[in-house]
Fold this protein.
Amino acid sequence: MFVVNLFLIIFLIICLLFLVRLFLHRTALIYVLKKWVEGIDDRIHVHQQFRVPELNENGQENQLYRKVLFYVNSLASIEDSDYTNLFSGKESNDIVLSLEDDQIVHDTFLGARVLWVNKIEKIHRSFVLKIKKKDKRRILKPYLQHIHTISDDIEQRRKELKLHMNNNGKWRSVPFNHPSNFDTIVVHIDLKNKVKSDLENFVKSKQYYHKLGRVWRRSYLLYGPSGTGKSSFIAAIANFLSYDVYNFDLSQVSDDDNLNLLLFQTTSKSLIVVEDLDCYISQKSRTGISPSGLLNFMDGILCSSCSDERIMIFTMNSKEGIDFDLLRPGRIDVHIYFPLCDFNSFKCLASNYLGVKEHKLFPQVEEIFQGGATMSPAEIGELMLVNRSSPSRALKSVIAALQANGRGSGSGGGGNVATRLRDSVESSPSPSSATEGGGGAAWKGTVPKEFRKLYGLLLLKSCNRPESLDHDSDMIER
Ligand SMILES: Nc1ncnc2c1ncn2[C@@H]1O[C@H](COP(=O)(O)OP(=O)(O)OP(=O)(O)O)[C@@H](O)[C@H]1O
Ligand SMILES: [Mg+2]
């Protein structure tokens, strides 16, 4: 009997606790309780306060204030503050939170709880940081360092990206808003992940490179046939890192000095890109860049500061006939091969362009691929794009093009197909497809030629040469 009563009492206590908890949550009394506990905790500890004013003693902007502002507004706990301002962000459906005056935001760092208060006195704003005295020595320095890193990262991601192009020895810039990203490019998932983590590791490795006495630079060679996504991949990298792009057109560079000057003028956190390096090297009438000038440029020694990070990306259709010195380890760190389509990449394109994951024509397409026919993703993508209103028609046109390609050169080189494809895009009767299919056409009036060259939707190479296809390696680190 006693045991039964005991169980009954325990059961009633549990129910009661549950109801109290429910009541506290429903009425938000839990927050009152939490604040009360925090208030007691604040009172029994001695705090030290640090003020970060908006302006310094000369009335100039205090850079630290700006960083703290970015940092505090990015804290998740800002949502718990009593008053928060809401603004629309960069994208139309973005909402940005910003702390109201005299509001408190909590943050934790290395296990210590700190407070930020957004003060306004007369017209001067400041942030006040409150840290418990016992934690100050341990966390203040690393915490401020942490704020620097996070706010730099936020600023970097917010800035408008630019594409810089050299013309007559000088840089010209246009906004860079290429939509390509790692989700839209059809390459093997492992390759994407490897490249992403390689980039992320690189940008975090300043100290490591410094310790090794090496220039903080990473270079990539993207090679493969025309229309396989090399330029789109560069744009995806720029968007992934939020880096500007400096596109070096070597044919516009007069000599080594000009090349060095242009390199010197590039800024940190940017991609230095040389497209079609193989074409430039094979040109009979090359500009005045000497072979050693080119090698020094690729080594990136003459950047404005060797402690700033540099990512260099070179593209080629083929590595065949290229001097080994140019591609040696240390000069080119990572080689990435961009192949023509196989059945798997075709299926990814069909899913992206047509929203089709399975189709009765797929077995036929697979068979044709197995027979050795192939085309570039650009060619297949364009056929799908112009026929996107009817997936069956799109797939039939891909089948016809693949069959014609297989009957033709058999190399998959795509020159003929590309020309036919371009004709089909340009003569498309649908107004929407005429604009989109000729993405370049939509840009023609507004965007410089080099821009279209770099990121055009379907550009035919002037130097179609047979490609070396080492299919076994997608990404090779040297
Ligand atoms: N792997 C791919 N995944 C998705 N789309 C692709 C892929 N490859 C090419 N495309 C599409 O084809 C078009 C041309 O691609 P891109 O310019 O990136 O090719 P490229 O390899 O740089 O060609 P080129 O050697 O002629 O400069 C782009 O609009 C892109 O959307
Ligand atoms: Mg390209």
